[in-house]
Each structure stands twice: as C-alpha cells, then as structure tokens.
Amino acid sequence: YLDGGYHIPTAHPGLNGELDPTAYRTETFDTFSLQTSTARSQGVAEGSRIDGDAFYAWLYPTLCINRYGDMMDVNIIEAAGPGHIRVIFDYFFDESAASSTKERIADALVLSEQIQHEDAWLSDRVQRGKASLGYDRGRYVPRVELAEHHFHKLLHADYRREIGDAVTAESG
C-alpha cells in the first residue's frame, strides 16, 4: 500500500491500465501519507473505476482511505495473530452521481475484490521472501517508498517511546 505505486504494473494489470504511472505522487505529513494519481488520458473505459483521479491516504497506524472518482472505500487493518492481519472494508458511493447505478456499484465491488486478492497474493510472497534465509534487509527505493519509510519512522518512534516507558516503570 505504501510503496509509491510501483507494485501496480506487476500486481494489478487492470488498475495499471487505468492509472497514469507518470502522474503518481506521494506526500507525507505528520501522521499520514497521501498517494495520488490520475487516469491515463487514453484507454480508460467509460464507467471505469478511475474517473479522473485516484487518492490513497494512510492514517497512522492502520487506517486507509481510497477514493476513485465517485466512490470511496475505507480499510481498517487489524492484527490477527503473529504473522496475520485482518482488513475490514467499507464502501461509499456518491448516490447523486449518474454512474452510481446498482450495476456500477456491483462492478466496483468486484474490481475491489480482485485487487484485494492480487494484493494478498503479492504480500504473501513478499513475506515468504523476507522469512527466507536468503533475505537480508535492504534500502528503501528513494523516489517511491517515501510513505513506507515515513510509516517505519513513526513505528520506530512508538517502539522507542514504549521501551522507554517500560524501562522507566521497571526502575521506578
């Protein structure tokens, strides 16, 4: 989610056909990051999920808000045990938009489900790779993994604070 969109061409062929990779941007703020892109100027089918632009906001630590044209989905990520997460999805559609017909909404939900399966498949393989004996930590990709690096800095600060509080409590 936070990789600056570089997994899209590999993992999401349908979405990749709709987003303009040259327009993908990432910004970080105090406790959230924002990734945006626009639709490709050519080749986007009428009624496409991407109607003009896409917006992906990550609010630290576990809330994602995604907007595509006249629809938005919210994802809440929860720990579900060691090495496992659960993602709760909720969808919102602009009922006043002409494209928010029952058929359009059903199609958008099918596309969303497909993207979730593609992400789960990719995430599983990344985690397997990181757990292998051949993996050694690497550097961030400077121009694209800004949001991922930002998330890890926030997480690191929380860990340091918790460890500091635990040490203080033990010595007190």
Round the Cα radius of gyration to an integer and report it.
18 Å
DSSP helical segment count: 4
Proportion of residues in helical segments? 25-40%
Low-confidence stretches: none
Shape: globular
Strand content: 15-25%
Mean pLDDT: 87
Topology:
Elements lengths: L7 H4 L1 H4 L8 E4 L3 E7 L14 E7 L3 E6 L2 E9 L5 E9 L8 H30 L14 H26 L1
Antiparallel strand pairs: 1-2, 2-3, 3-4, 4-5, 5-6
Structure overview:
The structure is a single chain. This protein has 172 residues and is α+β, with helices and mostly antiparallel strands. The chain has four helices and six strands, in the order H-H-E-E-E-E-E-E-H-H. It has helices at 8-11, 13-16, 102-131, 146-171, and strands at residues 25-28, 32-38, 53-59, 63-68, 71-79, 85-93. Strands 1-2-3-4-5-6 form a six-stranded antiparallel β-sheet, covered by helices on one side. The radius of gyration is 18 Å and the shape is globular.
